[in-house]
Amino acid sequence: MGFAEKIQSPKDITHLEGEIPVNYLYTVGIAGERFLRELKENAKILGIRCSRCRLVHVPPRTYCEQCFERLRDWVELTSEGRIETFTICYFSADGNRLAEPEIIAAVKLNGATSAFVHRIRDANDRDIHIGTDVEAVFKEKGDRVGSFLDIAYFRPSRRVRSESH
Amino acid sequence: MGVRIKEFRGTSLREEDIRQGRVLSVSYRPKAQYLWSAGVAIGRYLAELKNGRIVGRQCDKCGRTAVPPRMFCEWCFRPNDRWIILKDSGMVNTFSVSYIAADATRITEPLIPAVIQIDGTTGAGMLHLIGQVDPKKVEFGMRVQAIWKPPQERTGSILDIKYFKPAER
């Protein structure tokens, strides 16, 4: 490149390529530990009740986010609940079109105050609305690793499924 | 920890607690790739380093020459005016003697990063290393001279200058 010349091609401009190493490790914490171990070992869903404001948190935490009370009152919940809200996804997280659409829903278990996000499968689109009763389908014990995805998915409860057939 | 705090509250975890699965955890590594374009000014600067010379940009309004170059004068808030070929000597504007490497390991031969104000420029300068020197003898205002890599080893990088060594006035 001559000193007096202008740069004509953008490729003449120096580029640097790199990758920033970002290693991420999240430990699930005291409440998360007990919750996930129970999912893994016994396929049971635990919540925690606030002794002051009576909120039942699922997944459990160590402090009530409503009133800041220390939480100690563990409760076992059923694996049944209802859809609070939902969306049907036709694209994956990286923007590619999915072969089969995926239903993502906020599920509130019976007896819980809070809802969590999970996926709905084994369902007809017409069965899915706000208020649909759903039940958890757990992975086989050998496949459970202590993750929230040890609940493989939720599906409309037996009653909903038999009505739509 | 301070004098009055003997231990932190909470549950301490060691690496083997995680590795042996005594606590549950999630780990992943997001791919944080980047591609940085050096731009017009730094692109020319790096290309000229490969040619074995240091170039700057001069502003007609304030008369200042900037190294590393940029295409505007941040003193006058206007585009600057011309490229200037500079000498490869200058003086130490500020420096540090570091016994810790970039990866935080301890080293016995210190690195001496310095801001070198190239002759013919005003203010600041280029960040580089000082070599061939007793660390105790480095001073503010000390005259230095660039030591270049041989031409065939240059890649268009700031490291085409190996380091600056002390020079006579």
Strand order of the largest sheet of chain B: 12-11-8-13-14
Beta-strand portion of chain A reads 35-45%
Instruction: Please give the count of helices of chain A.
Output: 2
Biggest chain-to-chain interface with counts: A-B, 27 and 31 residues
Average pLDDT of chain B works out at 91
One letter per element, helices H and strands E, the order of chain A comes to EEHEEEEEEEEH
Number of DSSP E strands of chain A: 10
Q: What is the global morphology of chain B?
A: extended
Helix coverage percent of chain B: 10-25%
Q: What radius of gyration of chain A results from the CA coordinates? A: 23 Å
Task: Summarize the structure in words.
With 165 residues, chain A is mainly beta. Chain A has helices spanning 29-42, 158-164, and strands at 15-21, 24-27, 45-49, 56-57, 73-77, 80-91, 97-109, 116-120, 133-138, 151-156. Chain A has a five-stranded antiparallel beta sheet. Chain A has a three-stranded antiparallel beta sheet with strand order 4-3-5, with helices on one face. In chain A, a hairpin with a 6-residue loop joins strand 3 and strand 4 (56-57). Chain A is extended and about 75 Å long. Chain A starts with 14 loop residues before the first strand and ends with a helix. The model of chain A has no long low-confidence stretch (mean pLDDT 90). Chain B has one domain (39-166). Chain B is built from two helices and 14 strands; from the N terminus they run H-E-E-H-E-E-E-E-E-E-E-E-E-E-E-E. Strand 2 (24-27) of chain A pairs antiparallel with strand 1 (25-28) of chain B, so a sheet runs across the interface.
Provide the descriptors you would attach to this structure in a database record.
heterodimer; A: 165 residues; mainly beta; OB fold (Dihydrolipoamide Acetyltransferase, E2P); five-stranded antiparallel β-sheet; three-stranded antiparallel β-sheet; 2 helices; 10 strands; 39% strand; extended; B: 169 residues; 14 strands; 38% strand
